[in-house]
Amino acid sequence: MIASKDVWAGLMFIAFAALFAVAGAKLRLGSAGVMGPGYFPMVLAGALALLGLGILGRAVAVHIVAGGARKLPLLESARVRIDPRPLLVLLVALVVFALLVGRAGLVLTTLLVAVIGSFAGTGVRWPQMLMLAAFLSALTYVIFVAALAMPLPVWPRGW
Amino acid sequence: MDLWSNLALGLSVAASPENFVFCLLGCLLGTLVGVLPGIGPVTTVAMLLPLTFSFDPVSGLIMLAGIYYGAQYGGSTTAILVNMPGEASSVVTAIDGHRLAQQGRAGAALGIAAIGSFIAGCVATVLIALAAPALGAVALQFGPAEYFSLMVCGLVAAVVLAHGSVMKALAMVVLGLLLGLVGTDVNSGVRRFTLGYPQLAEGIDFVALSMGIYGIAEIARNLEGRDETRAVRTRIGSIWPTRRDLVFCLPAIFRGTVLGSILGVLPGGGALLAAFAAYTVEKKIARPPRHFGEGDLRGVAAPESANNAGAQTSFVPMLTLGLPSNPTMAMMIGALMIHGITPGPSVIRDKPEMFWGLIASMWVGNLMLVVLNLPLVGIWVKLLQVPYRFLFPSILVFCCIGAFAVNGREFDVYVLAVMTVVGYLCAKLDCEPAPLILGFVLSPIMEENFRRAMLISRGDPSVLISEPLSLAFLLAALALLFVLVLPAVRVKREQALQE
What we know:
The complex is a heterodimer.
Chain A: H1 2-23, H2 39-67, H3 74-77, H4 84-118, H5 126-147
Helix pairs in contact in A: 1-2, 4-5
Chain B: H1 2-14, H2 17-35, H3 41-48, H4 57-82, H5 91-102, H6 106-140, H7 144-161, H8 166-181, E1 183-184, E2 191-192, H9 206-223, H10 243-265, H11 270-285, H12 298-313, H13 315-321, H14 327-338, H15 346-350, H16 352-384, H17 388-407, H18 411-428, H19 434-456, H20 463-466, H21 468-489, H22 493-498
Antiparallel strand pairs in B: 1-2
Helix pairs in contact in B: 1-16, 2-3, 2-4, 2-16, 3-4, 3-9, 4-5, 4-6, 4-14, 4-16, 5-6, 5-12, 6-10, 6-12, 6-13, 6-16, 7-8, 7-19, 7-21, 8-19, 9-17, 9-18, 10-11, 10-12, 11-12, 14-19, 17-18
Keywords (chain B): Membrane, Transmembrane, Transmembrane helix
Pfam families (chain B): TctA
InterPro entries (chain B): DUF112_TM
């Protein structure tokens, strides 16, 4: 398992390095003496790519020494168990918050986000969950608006 | 004496009614959240970070420090009572602590942990007051080359402490450094890696980053195929340790304090290494040794003292060098920066009331923890029974508001979402997030010093090794790496077969 995760980890780091290299391709490099804005990032992206390759290479080597003996295909051994549901539900809740908070205000948005977020877990119990959401909504009002007086939109716009 | 006048200045700041309340509030909130199962100290600090932004820097920092000790103490409570250490540094506490709880002596364990932490906190406060100004004065002499090499050394040391693969931890540092570069380049004014979003001109928001990685990504991981509901049915027993217990543990407390104080200062050290080392030492010298692991009070006293001492002395490199030794210190730096203060050697000179106030508040905070927690332990036990299905929506809501409130813009909530995905991926692939956070915080300072060093030497990188101090830092970093990478690079067959 350790080795197979490394295959993906190596690939992930290489991908990040490539992302930064591409996004920073237009930045002026300058010289070592007078560095442009692109110099340090490119050094880092290079280092990240090398590290990613190292991690990947080591994982493949481990695979050849150990897994290969058992005739396991590399990518099958590289499978990582992921249950995407909680993550996806949480992401949806975040996006809903970002979309709504400016228009619907803090109180209603937190209520809704707490309800949506609850579905990231298993076995939602409606009454309890609604009470929790109402409690959280009230709590955030007390903390952020009443106590800390942060300049946040509280109620739906136009009310 | 200078020390006393400084401490007096600090106490006058820390004991002002306003700051006293902030310290109290921080300790209370920190414990309250830290005690909740499944929420470790780092998550606690990340979650509560935005609460401190609306106050002035000194009060905000004092409150944040209070949150940190409170969270740590709360974490130990969880470790002892339900054997669920919230973070690595209380793993050792759980070994003997939970055994004691099963034997009905949870009270004694909690009490000795609080008292040990308090003693350690007192000693560490004095040590910080002595060591920090000296270290700061030395650091003021550092040129850019020394500074750069020191940062390299600190980051490598942090990597060493992350468990798991060294290469992955290094890659996480570099990824953190790259993420830290997003935004406007100070030297040229050019925007880098902003992907056309003007909101990224000032960089990725630190709160959104840390909340994504430590808050929401962690929920996603916790919710995957976990069946919760652990009832806490332990009798707490008397909280106040008997005189015999105290005498029995006192040497262990002092040994833990000394070890913790020293290890805490080292970059990458902090509370984690301190707790492990203290436990190991006690186990070695304990007579009779056989009780260790089966509920020995010293097995709680020593690591708890050490981890508190270490947690406190880890403020020294953070405040004097701007070098965070653990993710919490990285968050402190993030908080300081949001208040417009760049941590580094000049902080002591320019902001003495903040520096000494913070140090004095550590002592005040430790006192509060003892005074508060011993009587309140009944409430904390109740909190332990809060099921996770109530907790995670709360974390979610608080992270949303926190990320949104810092700059009052929705964009940061999207950043939070992206960072959640990054944090989740890394966690799934066994890449520890701590090095990433440290790299992220250090990146601008590192680049600045690297550029300056190269500018002075006209592009000759040998300046990094021709300055003796700089060379020493780099050699130390190299030595650390060498020790660690050697066995890891060799592909060991048996290790691979372990699976």
